[in-house]
Amino acid sequence: MKVSIYVREHATRKYRKAKPTEPTGTVYVLRYGSTWETIDAENWNDARVAQLRKSAALLEGWRPKVAKKPASLMLDAAMDQYLAEIKNGRKKKTHQAYRVALKYFYESTGNKAMNDIARGDLIKFSAFLRDDKEQAPRSCWNKFSNLMSFLKHHDITGKSLKIKAHDWPKFVEEEPEIYAQEMLDKFFAACDEEERLLFEFFQQTGMREQEVIYATDRCLDFANCTVSVKHNPAHNWTPKMYKERTVPVPKALMSKLKLMLVKRGKGGLLFPTKSGLPKYNFLDMAKAIAKRAGIDESEVWLHKFRATFATRSLWAGVDLRTVQDWMGHTDLASTLRYLKPNHAIVSEKVEAIWK
């Protein structure tokens, strides 16, 4: 603390800064902080000695105040905290994806303070996913993205870690595959009545597997020939992004669904097990049908029906924004991926050019 020497004028009783040339009989005062202390000093030299002694006395036992750095949250505690929030507010599948990604990061880097996480840890994690866990390129990217979301939640950004675009795992964005009509004809020819209705439903609604699993008769609007993706509280299931939507379907499909419900009775899931529970083996069913039809099983998967729905809708002239709504995409770019050339029509047009 600074100590200054003042004098008090006898006439005005006011204080002013002292000078070395003050006359004998001057009243000297020390000022430190908000304190004014009159001292017994006959001259300037005595006042200076008193000033130095007071400065030393004030400094005695004084230590500079150092702001304590808050203890950084450890990685394991941060993970538990974050996953608890995800579990309470997001879907089970989302929680599982984050849990696996963070578990792998923990295996890669070990437990450490969140403030100590650096760019090198993320580069090491990317290599760990590729080499140790032998993850596919797209899976590496997804888990890296989940880790970045976790870090951002704790105010650690890619910018603060100096993460560059080339630090992210790379993957090739493959063009969505669709079923050729010839393959669909062979596939459906090998189906029994129930199987045909199920996979026509997949193809003509463009619904995701989970959406078909939990679809009920409440999703059907026979008057308007539409099928809706709806929340299923009985099975604690909600649509992706908590967004319901409605898709128009052909009258022939609605007629088959109506006939099925007349035979079976309304209520419950559209495509349940015999005991009325959700059916989870649709992919196995599709593979078995492919085998019967003489189709390579690796060429058959459920999302391919959804891709076929989107591409054929666009080929038929339905505008992008409408197909986006039918598909339940949050951005138009996701829908644009399904806008691909119709090679049959392209070939006809090329031939017509050169006639």
What do you see in this structure?
This protein has helices at residues 44-59, 75-89, 92-109, 119-132, 137-153, 181-189, 193-205, 209-213, 251-264, 282-293, 303-315, 320-327, 332-336, 343-353; strands at residues 4-8, 15-17, 28-32, 35-38, 220-221, 226-229, 245-248. It is elongated, with a radius of gyration of 38 Å. The relative contact order is 0.07. It is built from 14 helices and seven strands. It has 355 residues and is an alpha+beta fold. The chain has a four-stranded antiparallel beta sheet, covered by helices on one side.
Overview features:
three-stranded antiparallel β-sheet, alpha+beta, 48% helix, 355 residues, elongated, single chain
Give a concise summary:
The protein is of the alpha+beta class.
Biggest β-sheet strands, sense, barrel: 4 strands, antiparallel
* SSE succession: EEEEHHHHHHHHEEEHHHHHH
Total number of helices: 14
Report low-confidence residues grouped into runs of 5 or more.
none
The best one-word shape is elongated
SS-derived structural category: alpha+beta
Number of beta strands: 7
Major sheet: arrangement of strands: 2-1-3-4
What is the helical fraction, as a range of percent?
40-55%
What is the end-to-end distance? Answer: 99 Å
Mean pLDDT: 90
Proportion of strand residues: 5-15%
C-alpha Rg (nearest Å): 38 Å
